[in-house]
Amino acid sequence: MSTCDLADRLRDRLSDVIPIVETRLERLPQLLAGHAEVEPGSPRLELDGAHVVVAVAVAPCIALGLRQRAQPHKGTVLPGHGSVKNPQAPVGKSRVGSVPAVQLLVLGGTKFLGRAVVEAALDRGHEVTLFNRGRTNPELFPEAEKLRGDRGADLSALSGRSWDAVVDTSAYFPEQARSSAETLADAASYYLLVSSLSVYADRTQPLDEGSPLEELQPGQPDDQLQEDYSNYGALKVLCEEAAVEAFAGPTALVRPGLIVGPHDPTGRFTYWPHRVARGGEILAPKPAEGQVQFIDVRDLADWIIHLCEQRNEGPFNAVNRNVTWAALLDTCSAVADSDAEFIWVDPEFLIEQEVGEWMELPMWLHEESGLHATDVSRAVAAGLTFRPLDETVRGTLDQAETTGDAGLDPDREARLIAAWKAR
Question: Quick check: is 300 in a domain?
Fold first, then answer.
């Protein structure tokens, strides 16, 4: 092949790739930050003349974690096949940046956190298999393998398969966690269970991973949630214990607080950006400089994939830190360009007026204030990072809707503000 012919072919291939790459360049620092280190030395590809064009066109997609993967066709040799080699990769393993690519099984994966986990994994170039019933957003992720089943009744689709890591986002009862972990004990080398900060018994005090855990009380069922959710934390503790015991291999227990951001179905955090966007007088809980903790679903998902890459073990609390109520509401106002006026109200007045914690006045906690005083130093040391607050607010405004289950009714809010001013 002449030099001119090679240049023409290279130009044609890059014309397809460059527009895709350019849209992702702004995320390059975030993608690179997910890796513990950058291996020394420049990448080396052993190519013959017939394959150099394909390698140049495909390599940027792999480096930037693009989901648009090149598909092999007759006569084309792609990285990892034939004469295109990566001498730094273990035998039989492709690489994503400085880490081996992960074959990931996600139990769930199409609603909220699971959806973000799959997006993060595909963005980083990993291979993803989803196991679920196919009832929630089944059209998502056509590029991922999909196995159908019911974790409570039929796990047969998982038989005879193997993966590098499992992410379990949907275990609410210990039998679910146990049966999944047992089934996958010989099929995967790492298991990550998404638990909850609700596992801690005394949430009135600051929390860390060594804080005492909830216990199921006499008469509480272990196979269903009670109407008041009073057994939720204890069930999550039992799920953790079941997964660790049944899997018997490297296991991570991720304990998030309130998960927020795009596609949030709960409406709790979502209430605040949307309420501030409407403007006017807004009831806000004192103290304005008190910490309020939550976690952007995208930060949590990126970190979960990082844990799978690095195979970190043990329990991890997962919420943000150093965000105050004033900072949150001021950011909501700035993002929405709102004329909101915040009326800061004493917690004693809110209690006197029987304002409901957590749901009626979303995220406000008086009795269980330890949920806003959670130590996350272990998670940060293991790679958890937090995006700017305005990105979380903007993502919520753009991609999450309020619900009738969370937030003050406008008339009640107005009456409360009037009563506070008239006291």
Answer: no
**Local confidence band at 152 (pLDDT 50, 70, 90 cut-offs):** confident
Distances, alpha carbon 92 to alpha carbons 188, 194, 269, in Å: 16, 29, 44
Same domain assignment for residues 116 and 236: yes
Same domain, residue pair 266 and 361: yes
Is residue 88 very low, low, confident or very high in pLDDT (cuts 50, 70, 90)?
very low
> pLDDT confidence of 98, banded at 50, 70, 90?
low
Q: Is residue 75 part of a domain?
A: yes
Least confident of 11-15, 263-267, 295-299: 11-15
CA angle 188, 189, 193 (to 5 degrees): 80
Q: Is residue 274 part of a domain?
A: yes
Domain containing residue 138: CATH number: 3.40.50.720
**Backbone conformation region of residue 383, classed left if phi is above 0, alpha if psi is from -120 to 50, else beta:** left
What is the model's pLDDT at position 94?
56
Res 12: pLDDT = 52
Residue with tokens 């330890």, as numbered in its chain? 370
Structural domain includes residue 304: no
pLDDT of residue 95: 56
Indicate whether 109 and 206 sit together in one domain: yes
Residues 75, 113, single domain; the answer is no
In this structure, are 277 and 411 located in the same domain?
yes
Judgement on whether residues 121 and 223 belong to the same structural domain of the protein:
yes
The number of beta carbons lying within 10 Å of the beta carbon of residue 405 is: 13
Q: Which domain holds residue 126?
A: 102-256
CA 118 to CA 142: how far, in whole Å?
12
Direct distance between the N- and C-terminal alpha carbons of the chain, in angstroms, rounded to an integer: 87
Nearest to 194 by CA among 303, 31, 309: 303
Rounded to the nearest 5°, which phi and psi values hold at 146? Answer: -125, 125
**391 and 369, same domain (yes or no):** yes
Q: Examine the domain organization and report whether 139 and 251 are in the same domain.
A: yes
